[in-house]
Amino acid sequence: MERLDAYLQRKQREIALLNGCLDAPLKLQRPTSAMEVIKQKFQIAGALKAEHAIQDWALTETAWAHTGRMKAGPFEFSYDYQRADLEVRGPSFYAHAGQSLHDTVYTSSGMSAISALLLTSVKVVQAADILIMPGAYGETVELIESYAHHLRIVQTRGLSSDLASSSDRFRILLFDSSASSLAFEAILRCAAPCLNLIIFDTTCFSSGSGRIRRVLSWARRWRLPIVLVRSHTKLDSLGLEYGRLGSAVFVERRFALPSGTF
User: Per residue in 68-105, pLDDT tens?
Assistant: First the structure.
């Protein structure tokens, strides 16, 4: 468990890094509470957006001018109206990139990525069970309950036996990085899981997390197709909601599935 003083020191370094991105950095005091950290990050976000809107008014949500691809580090971006046709070019986000990672689809947010994946799944599977781990992200569960009516939620107990039981229905595991570590470890201990697809929300893990590597290895061992979905707004942006980006990475597509599945 991280102590408060260590947390505040870490957040002060994040704030200093973000503040240094401004042409005219804000004069900020050392935060003494989590609420002050949040307040200062929102202040920086507002200042960043203001500078961007003044300097690059033609390249906000809608790109009014076509001056070539925008660049941020090794990534290039292009889009038109409301980023509906967003295209991102660059290296794999995940540190465990290799022959197993294919076809990254970028979206305007993490919820857009998982929404597109779940809602379009009805085109290939008319009815399925989606296994939810304890502690899964609440908005994802709400999305499934409200809109993905072809998916029947099955709340697991976070035990490996929940995955091993056979079923005549298509079964999807929502492997959520916000779930408890106990549930995470229990799932990875499951031998011969009876699943058709894994959707792995990696938002709470860093791009080089060993847990991502372990889940990929587990899926590969049991020849299970897996899709990595992520919100790049949170951890990747140091908790600063300045820009919005999500992604879905399709993995191990060479593993053939029976007709009528993914």
Answer: 677 777 888 888 877 778 788 888 788 765 555 568 88
Cα angle, residue 224 at apex, residues 117 and 160 outer, rounded to 5°? 100
DSSP 5-63: HHHHHHHHHHHHHHHTTSSS----PPP-SHHHHHHHHHHHHHHHHHHHHHH-TTBSSSB
CATH 3.40.640.10, the chain: domain bounds: 92-251
Written as one letter, the residue type at 110 is G
Q: Which of 51, 32, 50, 31 is nearest to 41 (CA)?
A: 31
Alpha-carbon span 27 to 176, nearest angstrom: 38
Residues 99-125 pLDDT 10s: 555 688 888 888 999 999 999 999 989
Closest residue by Cα to residue 200 from 86, 85, 101:
101
**Closest alpha carbon to 133 in 182, 170, 203, 196:** 182
- Looking at the DSSP assignment, which residues form a beta bridge with residue 183? none
DSSP 165: S
**Candidate CATH numbers 3.90.79.10, 3.40.640.10, 3.50.50.60, 3.90.76.10; the one for domain 92-251:** 3.40.640.10
Say what the pTM is.
Answer: 0.80
Q: Taken in order 138, 139, 141, 145, is the CA torsion positive or negative?
A: positive
Pair type for strands 197-201 and 151-155: unpaired
Facing residues of 226 across strands?
Answer: 198, 251
3-class secondary structure, 218: helix
Residues forming beta bridges with residue 59, ordered by sequence position: 63
